[in-house]
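FAQ: What does the model actually see?

It sees only this:
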Amino acid sequence: MIAIELLVGILIAAVVITGIMKVAAPIADAFSERLRLKFQELGPEQERQYRLRLEALEEQVRQLQAQVSNLQDVANFNSGIAANNPPPDKIQLTNTEAAQQRRH
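And it is asked to produce this:
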């Protein structure tokens, strides 16, 4: 009886180990392929493509910096105008005060 239970246990362990190996092998292969590609040296064509992409991205950054600078100039100009011109309620108050002064 003990021998049969031992054989069943060994059989179950073998099935479990085989199942794990079947599932883990493709995952391990994919991981090793990913590592191999990650550390593979770039070929001259890939390097040229990356350099072109880098130059294009640098140009976009320069354009964005110029746009931000222009927006800052516009914001400074608008805040300067707003500081020099009183709000409409102040203008109305000033006109009212002027009308009262004319009456006196």
